[in-house]
Every structure is written in structure tokens, then in C-alpha cells.
Write a structure and sequence with these properties.
The chain has a seven-stranded mixed sheet. Strands 1-4-2-3 form a four-stranded mixed sheet, with helices on one face. The two termini are 30 Å apart. By secondary structure, it is an alpha+beta fold. It is 33% helix and 25% strand.
Length: 319
């Protein structure tokens, strides 16, 4: 793990090296990891960055930030039906990330690595930035040709989503102090759960898949564009938790608010007629709900309680 100067030498040796116990990491004593991938497997790579003030707040617990850093990358692997195996991390820190912050971050990272069964293989560290910028590359494997992309949806397919939608957006508002905090919703924002098991179940079943990171509507629009099809979503069918329904309401306006918030990290996918959603939910250990249909044409279309409704001006988060 490069960058071992000043505080970094001690931080890497004392805090990060114990987390990198996999032989691939070589004790973080070299500038690169060495891994022999399984024979007959495709490799899948993804990289996401979390920036202070953009993707996490100053008051967010450092351990939760570490969890989220790992989880959002694993969510990308889940969407492609890959099994995560290892990660490389880049820590760009500012003066706000003192020794106590770094210790809490490392502890949270360790919990997340153990929970998801993924190895830390290496990375880099740097200090002195104006604000923290933290990146992670995740590597996964799958059978050749088994990756599920965004471009396979076909007319006649059903549109499905895992879990519930909008909880994390409400959790973010609570973290920002604009809503009264509720533990369950804050947890959905700070500690997302990538649907890795469901992603692997969907290999060979789903025709297209992606994770919901920027909002259900904007991500559904992206899936439709990638596949060259039209997608219609029934807002009344969108799965909503009791807590979210209580806060946002259950009318079209409330559901649009939830459908345009981000950070859910659920899987949005299409599947042909005959797809057994109940069996997928059981094997994937998360609820699966049909929320719409795929047809010939282009674009995203919405149906509400009284029929078709216009798309809102803002479909979700755009960087």
C-alpha cells in the first residue's frame, strides 16, 4: 500500500495492515497485490468515490462512512451478478480526519469486510486535502458471459425492484436535520445493504439489471435508454416501508418524492414472463416486487392513482 510517509506509515502498519490479512495483500508491504483468479471466470471491476459534503456529511459516523464506501461498490457488483472477492482503497484525507476519526473508520471498514466476506488487498493514502475524498475499487468474479447489464430488457418483460424505495432519502433529510430522526431510516441512509445474494440469483433470469443509486425514476430511465425500450412504472405498486409512508404520505406526490430520492442501493431489473419473484426473493433474502412493464418504444412513463401522470422535472440525483 503506497504512501507510507509520516503518519501514514504508522496508520498503515498499525490500523490497516491488520485488516489486510489475505495473502493477496502481502501484508501491505509492497506497492501492489498479487492475485491468481479462479480458472474459467470473468473478472468484474467497479470503482466509486465518496466525497465529504457530497456523498457523506461531516457528522456521519466514520465507521458508517467506511461501511457505505464498501457497500456502494458491492452494489455495483451485485447488479452484474458478480461475487465480490477483494477491494483496493484510496484514502484522501483532510485535517478533519484526525486519529480518532481514522480509528473509527478502520473499525467500521473491518466490520464491513467481515460482514460481506471481502478482502482488503491494498490501496493508497494521502493527507492535506481541503476535504476528504475516499475511493474504492471492488473486484468480483462470475462465469463467462454471465454478467447482467443494463441493455438486455425486452418488450414484454416485467420490471422489478428489491426491498423498499425512498427510505434512504428520508434518512438523508434526517441526517441533515430537516426531518425528525428515526433510527431505521437513518440506518438505511448510512448503512446500505448491497443485494449481492439476489444479484447472483438473477444471473440467467434477469434480462437487464442495475442498482438504484440516484433514484428509482432516473435509474429506470437509464435502463430504458440502455436497452432501447419504453418502461412504464406503476407508482402504486412501488414498495414503500411503513415509516416512509407515514412521513411522505401515500398519494402520488408522496410516492414521487420517494421515487426521486437516491441512496437506496436496491436492484432494479427486468425479467421475462414466467419469472418467479417469490422464489427469487426467498433465495436472495430480500423482498422482490413487480412495479412495471417493458414495451416497444422509448423513455419512461408513469401511472398514478388516477392514470398516467407527467414525469417530474427532477427524476433523481444528478452529479
Amino acid at each position: 500500500m503506497a504512501g507510507a510517509r509520516g503518519f501514514e506509515r504508522g496508520f498503515i502498519a498499525d490500523v490497516l495492515a491488520p485488516l489486510a490479512s489475505d495473502p493477496v495483500a502481502r501484508g501491505l508491504t509492497d506497492d501492489a497485490a498479487v492475485w491468481t483468479p479462479p480458472l474459467g471466470r470473468d473478472l468484474v471491476f467497479t470503482h466509486d468515490v465518496l466525497a465529504a459534503g457530497v456523498h457523506f456529511l461531516g457528522q456521519d459516523p466514520p465507521g458508517d462512512i467506511a461501511w457505505k464506501l464498501l457497500a456502494v461498490n458491492l452494489s455495483d457488483l451485485a447488479a452484474m451478478a458478480a461475487q465480490p472477492v477483494g477491494v483496493l482503497m484510496g484514502l484522501g484525507l483532510s485535517a478533519a480526519q484526525d486519529e480518532a476519526w481514522r480509528a473509527d473508520f478502520a473499525a467500521g471498514l473491518g466490520r464491513a469486510l467481515v460482514h460481506f466476506g471481502v478482502a482488503l488487498w491494498g490501496g493508497d493514502t494521502v493527507t492535506g486535502l481541503d476535504r476528504a475524498v475516499i475511493g474504492l475499487t471492488a473486484i468480483g468474479t462470475l462465469l463467462p458471459g454471465a454478467a447482467t447489464g443494463r441493455d438486455g430488457a425486452r418488450p414484454g418483460d416485467g420490471l422489478y425492484v428489491s426491498g423498499t424505495i425512498g427510505d434512504a432519502g428520508l434518512g438523508l433529510a434526517m441526517a441533515q436535520g430537516t426531518l425528525k430522526a428515526e433510527t431505521a431510516l437513518l440506518k438505511r441512509y448510512r448503512l446500505p445493504m448491497p443485494r449481492v445474494a439476489l444479484g447472483r440469483v438473477l444471473a440467467g433470469c434477469a434480462t437487464a439489471c442495475m442498482d438504484v443509486s440516484d433514484g428509482l425514476l432516473i435509474d429506470a430511465q437509464r435502463l430504458a435508454a440502455a436497452s432501447g425500450v419504453a418502461i412504464e412504472i406503476d407508482l402504486a405498486a412501488m414498495p414503500v416501508s411503513d415509516a416512509a409512508r407515514r412521513i411522505a404520505g401515500d398519494d402520488d406526490a408522496g410516492r414521487l418524492r420517494l421515487a426521486t430520492s437516491g441512496d437506496d442501493y436496491e436492484l432494479l431489473f427486468t425479467a421475462p414472463p414466467g419469472f418467479d419473484a417469490d422464489a427469487a426473493a426467498l433465495s436472495g433474502k430480500v423482498a422482490v416486487t413487480r412495479i412495471g412493464t417493458v414495451s416497444a418504444g422509448m423513455g419512461l412513463h408513469l401511472t398514478g392513482q388516477a392514470g398516467p401522470i407527467a414525469l417530474p422535472a427532477r427524476l433523481g440525483w444528478e452529479h
